[in-house]
Design brief:
The complex is a heterodimer of chains A (133) and B (739).
Chain A: E1 3-8, H1 12-24, E2 32-34, H2 37-46, E3 52-57, H3 66-74, E4 82-88, H4 93-99, E5 105-110, H5 115-122
Parallel strand pairs in A: 1-2, 1-3, 3-4, 4-5
Chain B: H1 9-17, H2 24-33, E1 38-43, E2 50-53, H3 61-71, E3 80-84, H4 89-93, E4 98-105, E5 111-118, H5 127-146, H6 151-167, E6 171-176, E7 181-184, H7 186-196, H8 214-227, E8 233-239, E9 248-259, E10 262-272, H9 274-295, E11 301-305, E12 311-314, H10 316-322, H11 326-331, H12 340-349, E13 359-366, E14 372-384, E15 387-396, H13 398-419, E16 424-429, E17 434-437, H14 439-449, H15 467-481, E18 486-491, E19 502-512, E20 515-525, H16 527-549, E21 552-558, E22 563-566, H17 568-573, H18 584-589, H19 595-610, E23 614-621, E24 627-639, E25 642-652, H20 654-696, H21 705-738
Antiparallel strand pairs in B: 1-2, 1-5, 3-4, 4-5, 6-7, 6-10, 8-9, 9-10, 11-12, 11-15, 13-14, 14-15, 16-17, 16-20, 18-19, 19-20, 21-22, 21-25, 23-24, 24-25
Classes of the chains: A alpha/beta (133), B alpha+beta (739).
């Protein structure tokens, strides 16, 4: 099973930064960028198959924010193939609490995202097996 | 008289030997078949006669009847004879209008009696009835013939009698048909000898002219003539006194002696019954007195035999009171009418020798219905019918005793009752002396003053009582003794450790008729109640003050009368005058139309119908047209499950609401600022931090260093713009708060 890395953030600079770090950390060679939740959702729904998706998800975005994407994914059959890392500039405890209520969210990271954080992610029990080969 | 053959002496004896009920069958059947008032079997020369009468015909009637039947020659053995309206006096007196009779005769033809129907409704019997009548006659004859007797024994008895004849004081003599003397007993001979100086001899004419009065001689002749017809009879004759003998009463018996079927001799027995007669008269006289005093006395009485303890006489009142009949009483002894344990005691106490002493005892007796009664017995010894006896007067004191017992029990119960309480109970007389007191009162006085009060002691005047207390109590006592009933609350902090600081005393005068005899007091420790009352009072005051501060007003709605009452603060909140009288409708309309009014009406409706209390924040429109926020609370009071009253409070929360609104607006701004800081401010900061991280370890081909530095500058400008925006927002809200 292939693990695709999706970067969902409306900030172009952030997308670039996250892509570079993701490659540097060895998480993926080809991250896919989306400027809002809706684009990411459409991509997942249209390309679904056996693939798994690791999403670095921002909260505040136009059109469909991070929470709305999570909600939308709940109704999909492939929700078990999705792993989400919330990446937000928010340091609000309320957001952290809310994120922990979603089964797909495996981590909550306050921006800025660093190489060390993403390397640590590879050892997360939920996704560890994707990186063992 | 020619065919008349009287029965011999033994037939007479046979008849006498018949038992009482031998003729019952004959009499029963006959009286059922023949419509008559009397049916009788009369015997000649025999003492026994039978008759069955529907009215009160005397028994002696049958004797008379026998004589009459003989005189009128009802001797024909086969025929049934009827006489209508007999003229003889005794028939007239007894109301006998007809006699239908048949002679009873032995096989030798001797007539020994008659069977008769008197006052028969139909004088002529039918042939069938005549046959029935004859059958009864035959049955009677066979009864007589069949009666078994030991004649020898009887003859022996008669010989014995002959010996006895001479030892009696009776004059007994035997005469023939010519009234000449045949034989006489010693008493007779000696009496005649005394009067005539000569011993009477056989063949002497027994009636002595010059000695017997003319009247007596005629009497004797008549009796003898009658007796020679075969009739045995006894007459009592009064003899006027002569120089020979005193005035006296004689009982004369005439015994016809039948030999060879004829009455050949008469035995005459004369007995002086003067004393008996006099005694009888005396007895009769005293008996009337005795009857009045004893028998009809309304007080139960009896006479009993001292030796046998048997009842000898019982009066009507005793019979009524005890329920035993006279016959039942006479079969019992005094032991039978008392409980067993009393019977032994009675035996111990009763002394046959104490004859005339008057005694009085209390005993228990048992009535026929089994009920035991208590009686007071007054008794004195008398002689009664020759017996040593006691006359007993009975006083039933059962109810009296019961009453006493109840009184005693009541007294005990009352004492128990007043001593079972810690409350003080006491009473005084007119002079303020103690009459009665319960233990609690006496104990308290002892504890306070060290004095043990006794009935008769002044309750207001003893060592240790202070002047002020004395004056206080004196005034209270005077007031109650003047007839005033009142309750007084006494405050005595000095005895708080012993009793309590507060005592409620109820004073009641004791009246006897119109006069006041004293007073009864009832004291109760109300310290606890008082403390609670004071606490309540304080609490209420605090509540009132609080409600004034908190602007909380009360109100109530009486469901039955529809009356609405508002408290003064409620009126203030509604900005109505203090004398404003609200109605249910005006109360409802005081709430702001729309959400508030709907909410309150629905809540009130629910409260009344389901008892659910409510607590709402709603708006009212005051009488001055101002809108105001209030907290409205309501609750229903139920009586036997039905709502009777709706009550509650209304609190002015307008200022609170206003302040709350302002605070909420501020909070909203603060939340917005926090959000901005979190999301808007941190976004460019985080971006800068991310770029710098990348620059520290830069080997990227995707982006140039210049591009990154430009981005840092852009982010810094972005931050500056955001901070300016926040500053503007706070400034505006601050102004808003100031307004």
């Amino acid at each position: 099973m292939k693990l695709n890395l999706l970067i969902v953030d409306d900030d172009k600079m952030v997308q670039t930064l996250h892509s570079i770090i993701a490659k540097k950390s060895g998480l993926t060679d080809s991250p896919i960028n989306f400027a809002d939740g809706q684009q990411a959702f459409d991509f997942i729904v249209n390309n679904h198959g056996d693939d798994a998706y690791l999403i670095l998800l921002d909260i505040n975005m136009p059109i469909m924010n991070g929470w709305e994407l999570l909600e939308a994914l709940q109704k999909q059959a492939l929700k078990n193939q999705i792993y989400v890392v919330m990446v937000s500039s928010s340091i609000d405890q309320h957001d952290l609490d809310k994120a922990s209520t979603y089964e797909q969210v495996i981590s909550y990271v306050s921006k800025p995202l660093t190489k060390d954080i993403l390397e640590g992610l590879k050892a997360q029990p939920q996704v560890k097996h994707f990186f063992e080969n | 008289m020619n065919n008349f053959t009287p029965p011999n002496e033994f037939i007479a004896i046979q008849i006498e030997a018949l038992k009482e009920n031998d003729f019952d069958f004959v009499l029963d059947v006959a009286s059922n078949i023949f419509d008559t008032s009397v049916i009788c079997v009369s015997f000649l020369g025999a003492k026994k006669q039978w008759h069955r009468s529907q009215s009160n015909h005397p028994f002696s009637l049958t004797f008379q009847l026998s004589c009459y039947l003989l005189q009128h020659q009802f001797e024909q053995t086969d025929d049934i004879f009827t006489v209508n309206n007999p003229k003889e006096d005794f028939f007239l007196t007894n109301g006998i209008s007809s006699i239908t009779s048949k002679a009873l005769c032995l096989s030798n033809g001797a007539i020994f009696g008659h069977i008769s129907l008197l006052n028969i409704k139909y004088v002529e019997l039918t042939i069938k009835e005549q046959n029935i009548f004859r059958a009864f006659a035959q049955k009677t004859i066979s009864l007589v013939e069949q009666s078994q007797l030991n004649l020898e024994e009887l003859i022996f008895e008669r010989n014995q009698l002959k010996v006895l004849l001479s030892s009696t004081n009776d004059y007994i003599w035997c005469i023939d048909k010519n009234l000449n003397l045949i034989s006489a007993n010693k008493t007779y001979i000696e009496a005649i000898k005394k009067h005539t100086g000569e011993t009477p001899k056989k063949g002497d004419y027994f009636l002595l002219k010059g000695i017997h009065s003319g009247e007596l001689i005629e009497n004797f002749k008549g009796h003898c003539e009658r007796a020679f017809k075969g009739i045995f009879f006894t007459v009592n004759t009064h003899i006027s006194g002569t120089k020979w003998y005193n005035e006296q009463w004689l009982e004369l018996s005439f015994h016809p002696i039948i030999e060879k079927g004829q009455v050949e001799k008469l035995v005459i027995n004369a007995r002086n019954i003067t004393k008996r007669r006099k005694d009888k008269e005396k007895l009769k006289k005293s008996k009337t007195q005795y009857e009045a005093l004893f028998l009809s006395n309304p007080q139960p009485m009896w006479i009993y035999d001292i030796e046998t303890l048997a009842f000898l006489e019982i009066n009507e009142a005793a019979i009524r009171h005890y329920g035993y009949s006279r016959e039942e009483f006479l079969k019992m002894t005094l032991l039978d009418i008392r409980p067993k344990e009393d019977a032994y005691k009675f035996l111990d106490l009763s002394n046959p020798n104490e004859e005339l002493e008057d005694t009085q005892y209390e005993w228990r007796h048992i009535k026929k219905d089994g009920k035991t009664i208590s009686v007071l017995i007054t008794t004195h010894g008398i002689k009664y019918q020759g017996r040593k006896a006691r006359h007993v007067l009975i006083n039933d004191i059962t109810e009296q005793k019961l009453h006493l017992l109840l009184l005693e029990a009541e007294k005990t119960n009352t004492a128990a009752l007043i001593n079972s309480t810690d409350d003080l109970v006491w009473s005084i007389d007119r002079d303020q002396r103690l009459a009665t007191a319960n233990d609690a009162y006496l104990h308290l006085i002892k504890q306070i003053y060290g004095v043990t009060l006794k009935p008769g002691d002044f309750v207001n005047d003893f060592d240790g009582i202070i002047d002020q207390t004395r004056k206080e109590w004196d005034a209270l006592h005077q007031r109650v003794l003047q007839g005033d009933s009142f309750t007084y609350e006494s405050y005595t902090p000095e005895i708080s450790s012993i009793w309590g600081s507060w005592t409620e005393i109820i004073f009641n005068p004791i009246r006897e008729g119109n006069e006041i005899r004293g007073a009864a007091m009832f004291g109760r420790n109300i310290t606890k109640r008082k403390i609670i009352e004071l606490e309540l009072e304080t609490n209420q005051r605090i509540l009132l003050e609080t409600s004034e501060i908190g602007r909380i007003g009360g109100w109530q709605f009486d469901i039955a009368t529809k009356k609405v009452t508002w408290g003064s603060i409620t009126k203030e909140i509604h900005e109505v005058p203090i004398d404003y009288e609200p109605t249910f409708e005006s109360s409802m309309y005081s709430y702001k139309e729309g959400e508030s009014r709907n909410a309150i009406m629905s809540a009130v409706n629910k409260a009344i119908h389901s008892g659910m209390p409510y607590d709402l924040e709603v708006q009212i429109v005051t009488a001055k047209g101002r809108e105001r926020w209030v907290r409205a609370k309501g609750r229903v009071e139920l009586a036997q499950g039905k709502p009777i009253r709706l009550y509650g409070m209304v609190q002015d929360i307008n200022d609170q609401k206003k302040h709350l609104g302002a605070i909420e607006a501020q909070n909203k701004q603060l939340r917005e600022i926090a959000w901005m800081q979190s999301h808007v401010v941190r976004a460019p900061v985080a971006r800068i931090m991310g770029i710098i991280n990348l620059l520290n370890d830069f080997d990227s081909v995707e982006i140039s260093k210049e591009e990154l530095l430009q981005n840092i500058l852009d982010s810094a400008y972005e931050i500056d713009g955001i901070i300016r925006k926040i500053n503007n927002t706070i400034q505006i809200d601050h102004n808003h708060i100031l307004i």
